[in-house]
Amino acid sequence: MEKVIYLLWRDPQQTLDSWCRNIRGELADSLLALGARSLQINVFDEIAAPGVEHIQGGEPMIEGFVQLWLDSANDGPRAPLDAAIASVTLRMAAYLVSESVLQTDLPRPARSGERTPCFAQMALFRCLPTLTREQWWDIWRNSHSEIAPVTQASFYYAQHLVVRPLTRDAPLYDAIVEECFPDAALTSPHAFFGAADDAELEIKRGTCMQSIARFVDFTTIAVVPTSQYLIK
């Protein structure tokens, strides 16, 4: 099977609340009926909006993500899913990704389709142009992967290497990362970094950001706080 991540942009004529409900409801049902083997929805809803980190360049903003597994991500088998997503969004972009999950202590919702009790941060970025692909990969996957979990209070950490864009005019990204934190981390940097006081916060935040600066091109980064819905 292959994993595909879609970025979703909302038509501003539709309210955020109704759009989010449609994405995780009717659209999710359609994608399952069309052959998605596993499905997760992330939306920038009113719960996630106060997120401590929210960085995006350009308008409109990315406000949703669809993560799904397919038997094949080839254009033909994927076309009905692309059409279903395009019908409820202003714009969408799809990427074939390779997934690596480093932390798996995700609290499960009471029932499938309900909001996961967490704050899910989605980060998209390109590698520093001064690095070779091999250097970037080594720093991100073999070095930063050890630093991030000990400097942040995350309990789920998934790295997605972008294999290639699947749709025309998709923004160029090398990686898509999802990290999940306690809900308190939406508004509290101390909860985000698991810091007991200001001194520990500055140490952990400084260490984490110094590590990120080694491999991320900050001119390309987008950070989106979301609510996560595990559909299947």
Q: Which H/E pattern describes the elements?
A: EHEEHEEHEEHHE
Number of helices: 5
Mean pLDDT: 94
* Sheet with the most strands: spatial strand order: 1-3-2-8-5-7-6-4
Distance between the termini: 15 Å
Describe the structure.
This protein is an alpha+beta fold and 232 residues long. The protein has a single domain (2-230), classed as Alpha-Beta Plaits. The protein is built from five helices and eight strands. The protein has helices spanning 16-33, 75-86, 133-151, 189-193, 198-212; strands spanning 2-9, 38-43, 62-70, 91-104, 119-127, 156-165, 175-181, 216-230. The protein has an eight-stranded antiparallel β-barrel. α3 (133-151) packs antiparallel against α5. The chain starts with a strand and ends with a strand. The mean pLDDT is 94.
Strand-helix topology:
Blueprint: E1 2-9, H1 16-33, E2 38-43, E3 62-70, H2 75-86, E4 91-104, E5 119-127, H3 133-151, E6 156-165, E7 175-181, H4 189-193, H5 198-212, E8 216-230
Helix pairs in contact: 3-5
Keywords:
single chain, 232 residues, alpha+beta, Alpha-Beta Plaits, eight-stranded antiparallel barrel, 8 strands, globular
Quick synopsis:
This protein has 232 residues and is an alpha+beta fold. Helix content is 30%, strand content 34%.
